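Fresh eyes needed here. Have a critical look at this protein's tokenised backbone.
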Amino acid sequence: MRIHLISVGGRMPGWVQEGYQEYARRMPSECALHLTEVPLGRRGKGVDLGRSVREEGCRMLAFLPKDAEVVALDVKGTAWDSEALGRRLQQWLAAGRDLALFVGGPDGLAPGCLERADVRWSLSPLTLPHPLVRILVAEQLYRAWSMLKNHPYHRG
């Protein structure tokens, strides 16, 4: 199984790239984590923001692997604790399908991405900056994997 983190935004600061890479490289080949950055749509005065978000969504959907389970990161989604995420990861691994995680830009996910999602996951009721989300997701996936393997990383 491959985990595809499909995220809006590019040219992240070094600390974001380093934070994400730290956890992505720890993931084993059985559930390797791969980042796909989708360019941020146009923003600014006189730009139709809804159209920009929809265009981002179309680009995200274009990167979606065939037959992948889709998780949309959405503040209105279901919050999982680390143990629940571990159980989810175990189910995803057992299913053998690729997993795609959609992370929207600063204005959220396109309606098409939310509709395509099999499940919606909320990291927190707080509004988080989208660059930070990719680090949190990578860390939590590594934590979930470490729990499944009784690795000492998780001491919850």
About this structure: The chain has five helices and five strands. The chain has a mean pLDDT of 93.
